[in-house]
Design goal:
0% strand; 3 helices; mainly alpha; 101 residues; single chain
Length: 101
């Protein structure tokens, strides 16, 4: 499920960018980036928190911390990498098209 969310968010990001390129609203790419980062920080980690049993003992916070760190660094890193790679590849493709004209 975790891998599905990571791959799904990257695919949604790329598909959104392609759709945004057709409308020429480049500011919307930044909006998609910010929405995905917000989801990775606040929403997605909560889906993977382990269940806590009330057996009278204290609960270790390490599993919660590990899930948060995974989404904060790995998932947001993937989102930022996808954003930079898409923008960079689009820039390279456009510069090659303009050189051949």
């Amino acid at each position: 499920m975790l891998l599905l969310i990571l791959i799904g968010s990257a695919l949604i990001q790329v598909c959104s960018y392609i759709a945004i390129d057709r409308t020429e609203h480049n500011w919307a790419k930044t909006l998609v980036l910010l929405v995905l980062i917000t989801l990775n920080i606040y929403v997605f980690p909560g889906l993977f928190y382990p269940t806590v049993t009330n057996d009278g003992h204290g609960v270790c916070g390490m599993p919660f911390m590990a899930v948060n760190i995974l989404f904060w660094f790995i998932a947001n890193g993937l989102v930022l990498f996808t954003h930079i790679a898409y923008i960079g590849l689009k820039h390279i493709r456009n510069s090659r098209k303009s050189q051949h004209k």
